[in-house]
């Protein structure tokens, strides 16, 4: 579990390519773990004015947001180490002699971390907030089954490699392709299902925020009689 050994193992190919389903699952989970859109339901800044942040101000308020962004940087750095080769130069810069020497590894590492932070901000600006039932359906019906199936596939491949049944370790890339395709299909089906539910809800919903009430009209034919009666009483 040495992070330096994990980075060294990605010298030829990143785990983001070799273990594509793991990369997709981790990226989705880290967005939910940091309570960022579209999984920011615990905070819901638009509805709750920042949630529990309303109880604080000044330095304490700033520290809460600082902790949120530190959490984003932490999970981004972990994803960079596990899946994007860590401090190693990306292709095609890796072909340049000396690309992984001196202070350049810091540039590659922080550049990859900034790319993940850009993804966080991009998702927040483009995707709407999911309902809690949609979040749970996505986790229990898509992510967890795909993750368990992928663990079984990777374990079987590792056993086959250790027993010399498979000579080329890049067979994992071919195993990742169908699992990634299943994950993509699941996402598309889940999106179409949620979109269909939204359309059906809008179709059955009234056109006004409050259902229109039938206007009560006064009987104008009796008004002259009322005025005549008032005149006679006077």
Keyphrases for this structure?
9 helices; mainly alpha; 66% helix
Describe this structure in words.
This protein has helices spanning 3-9, 15-18, 20-33, 45-48, 58-83, 104-126, 132-162, 171-204, 223-233. The protein has 234 residues and is mainly α. It has a domain at 37-130. The termini are far apart.
The helix-and-strand class reads mainly alpha
Which oligomeric state applies? single chain
Name the beta content range: under 5%
The ordered string of helix (H) and strand (E) elements is HHHHHHHHH
Largest sheet: none
Mean pLDDT: 78
Shape descriptor: flat
Count of helix runs: 9
Which stretches of 5+ consecutive residues score pLDDT under 50?
A: none
Measured on Cα atoms, how large is the radius of gyration? 29 Å
Strand tally is 0
Instruction: Indicate the percent of residues in helices.
Output: 55-70%
Q: How far apart are the first and last residues' alpha carbons, in Å?
A: 102 Å
GO cellular component, one term: membrane
Subcellular location: Membrane
Keywords: Membrane, Transmembrane, Transmembrane helix
InterPro entries: NADH_UbQ_OxRdtase_su1/FPO (IPR001694), NADH_UbQ_OxRdtase_su1_CS (IPR018086)
Provide a concise account of the structure shown.
The protein has 234 residues and is mainly α. It contains nine helices and no strands. The protein has helices spanning 3-9, 15-18, 20-33, 45-48, 58-83, 104-126, 132-162, 171-204, 223-233.
């Amino acid at each position: 579990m040495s992070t330096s050994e994990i980075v060294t193992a990605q010298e030829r190919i990143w785990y983001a390519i070799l273990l594509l389903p793991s990369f997709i699952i981790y990226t989705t989970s880290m967005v939910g773990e940091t309570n960022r859109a579209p999984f920011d339901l615990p905070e819901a800044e638009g509805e709750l004015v920042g949630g529990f942040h309303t109880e604080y101000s000044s330095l304490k308020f700033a520290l809460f947001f600082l902790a949120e962004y530190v959490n984003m940087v932490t999970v981004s750095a972990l994803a960079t180490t596990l899946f994007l080769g860590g401090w190693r130069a990306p292709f095609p810069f890796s072909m340049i002699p000396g690309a992984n020497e001196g202070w350049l590894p810091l540039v590659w590492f922080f550049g990859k971390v900034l790319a993940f932070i850009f993804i966080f901000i991009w998702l927040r600006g483009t995707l709407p907030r999911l309902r809690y039932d949609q979040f749970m359906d996505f986790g229990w019906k898509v992510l967890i089954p795909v993750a368990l199936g992928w663990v079984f596939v990777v374990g079987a491949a590792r056993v086959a490699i250790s027993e010399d049944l498979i000579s080329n370790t890049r067979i994992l890339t071919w195993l990742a392709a169908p699992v990634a395709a299943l994950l993509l299909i699941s996402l598309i089906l889940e999106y179409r299902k949620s979109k269909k539910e939204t359309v059906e809800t809008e179709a059955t919903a009234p056109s006004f925020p409050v259902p229109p009430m039938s206007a009560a009209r006064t009987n104008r034919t009796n008004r002259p009689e009322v005025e005549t009666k008032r005149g006679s009483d006077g």
